[in-house]
Amino acid sequence: MASFKVTGGKKLQGEIIPQGAKNEALQIICAVLLTKEPVTIHNIPAIRDVIALIDLLGDMGVKLTHLSETSVRFQADDVNLSYLETESYKTKAASLRGSVMMLGPLLARFKKGRIPRPGGDKIGRRRLDTHFLGFERLGAKFDFDPEDGGFYKVDASNLKGTYMLLDEASVTGTANVLMAAVLAEGTTTIYNAACEPYLQQLCKMLVRMGANISGIGSNLLTIEGVSELNGTEHTMLPDMIEIGSFIGMAAMTQSELTIKNCSVPDLGVIPAVFQKLGIKLEIRGDDIFVPAQDHYEIETFIDGSMLTVADAPWPGFTPDLLSIVLVTAIQAKGTVLIHQKMFESRLFFVDKLIEMGAQIILCDPHRATVVGMNRHIQLRGIRMTSPDIRAGVSLLIAAMSANGVSIIDNIEQIDRGYQHIDTRLNAIGAEIIRL
Ligand SMILES: CC(=O)N[C@H]1[C@@H](OP(=O)(O)OP(=O)(O)OC[C@H]2O[C@@H](n3ccc(=O)[nH]c3=O)[C@H](O)[C@@H]2O)O[C@H](CO)[C@@H](O)[C@@H]1O
Ligand SMILES: C=C(OP(=O)(O)O)C(=O)O
C-alpha cells in the first residue's frame, strides 16, 4: 500500500493540463470489441483502471499497438472467448467497475458474455439491475448464481430492438445497453438514458463506426441496428472531474492556476457550482483561469436560505465532484449543505476532515453541512486513509492547504482516477512525496 507525504501550505502557480476522461475512456475502450477493424484512441489517461482494462483486452486476444504515451490502436479481430472462463479473467475484471461495459459489446458481437461482480469505489450499494433488465428487454437471457463462480452470465443468441424505459439513468448501464443495441436487429428506443458527455462521446464514436443513433445528448436514444461496424479514431475529452478537482484545489490553496484546454461547453453546470461557493473563475478561450483568492463567500439562494449542492443525473451536477465541493467549502465564508443523493457511503470520509479541524456536521449518510472557516483557522496535517478516488483527492486538497505534514495512505485509490498526480502537482509548486 503506497502513501503520499504532503507538506501543506505550498501555493501552486502556473498551468495544468487535464488528463483524458476516466469514465469516458472505460466506455470507449470497451467499444473496440464491437468491430474486427482497427480502432485508434487518443488522449487515453494513464490511470490504474484504464491500464487494467487495456491489459484485460490484451489478455482476451485484442491486438494492442501503443502509438504514443496516450494513443493506442486496438484490433479485436481474433478474440479468445475461452479466456472469459479463466480465474485470471475473473480477478482482473473484478478489479474495476468499467469492465462491466465489455458485456454489451460481447453480446452484440459474440452473442454471449460473462462478467464477475465488478469492483470500483466502495461508496454504497452499486446495482447492476439497469444493465441486465436492458439486456433482457433486448431478448437476452440472464443468469447469476453466486454458487457458480460468482459470474453474471448473459446469453443473447438473438438480440432484437425494442422500446425500453430504464429503471435509472445509469451511466455504465446506458453505455452497455447502447453497445448491445447497435448490432441488434431492428429499432431500439432507450428512454431515461443517461446523457453525460461520456455517453455523448460514445454515441459519436459509434456513429463514426457506422451505427445509426439519434437523440444523442438527450435521455431518449433511438438506435437502428446495423449488421456490422467498422474501425474509427477517437479522442477523449478532458476529464471534467479532474478539472473540478483543480478548481477546488486552487481555491483552497490560494493559488493562481490556469487549467488548459477544458472543453468548456462540455462542463455543464460544473463551473457555476464552484462559482456559487464564491470562487472567481475566468473562461479564457478554452482555458479556465482561477485567480489567487484569499477569501471566497458562499452564495445563498435568492430567498436568502442556505445553499444546497446536490448531485443529479446529467445535466445535473455530477456526484463525482461533491466530495471536492465539500472540501473546498471548508475555507469559504458561509455555510453550505452537501446532499449526496446517489451514493450512501460517500460522505463518511468527512471524519478525517473534522479531525484536521474542519467544521462539518455529518447530518446522515447522505448529507453534510460545512460551516466555512474563512481561513480564520487553518486545517492541521494528520495521517489518514483514502477510501475512494474522489474522497482521496479531497483529502489531498485538504492536506495541501493544511499547516504541517499529512500522510495519506491507500493512494492506489487516487491512482485509479488521477494520472501521475504527485508529479504533475509538484511541477507547479506542490510538495508531495510518494512513499
Ligand atoms: C465507471 C463509471 O463511469 N463510473 C461512474 C458511473 O458509475 P455507474 O454507472 O456504476 O453508476 P450509475 O449511474 O449506475 O448509478 C450511480 C448511483 O446513482 C444511483 N442513481 C443513478 C441514476 C439515477 O437516476 N438515480 C440514482 O439514484 C444509482 O442507484 C447508483 O447508486 O456513474 C456514476 C454516477 O454518475 C459515477 O459516480 C461513476 O464515477
Ligand atoms: C465512482 C467512481 O468511479 P468507479 O465507478 O470507477 O468506481 C469515480 O470515478 O468517482
From TrEMBL:
Transmembrane segments: none annotated. GO terms for cellular component: cytoplasm. Phosphoenolpyruvate binds at residues 22-23. Keywords: Cell cycle, Cell division, Cell shape, Cell wall biogenesis/degradation, Cytoplasm, Peptidoglycan synthesis, Transferase. InterPro entries: Enolpyruvate_Tfrase_dom, Enolpyruvate_Tfrase_sf, MurA_subfamily, RNA3'P_cycl/enolpyr_Trfase_a/b, UDP_GlcNAc_COvinyl_MurA. Its main location: cytoplasm. Pathway: Cell wall biogenesis; peptidoglycan biosynthesis. It catalyses: phosphoenolpyruvate + UDP-N-acetyl-alpha-D-glucosamine = UDP-N-acetyl-3-O-(1-carboxyvinyl)-alpha-D-glucosamine + phosphate. Coiled coil: none annotated. UDP-N-acetyl-alpha-D-glucosamine binds at residues 97, 320, 342. It is an enzyme of class 2 (transferase). It is found in: Cytoplasm. One of its GO terms (biological process) is UDP-N-acetylgalactosamine biosynthetic process. SUPFAM superfamilies: EPT/RTPC-like. Pfam families: EPSP_synthase (PF00275). PANTHER family: UDP-N-ACETYLGLUCOSAMINE 1-CARBOXYVINYLTRANSFERASE. This is UDP-N-acetylglucosamine 1-carboxyvinyltransferase. It comes from Siphonobacter curvatus. The lineage of its organism: Bacteria, Pseudomonadati, Bacteroidota, Cytophagia, Cytophagales. The gene is murA.
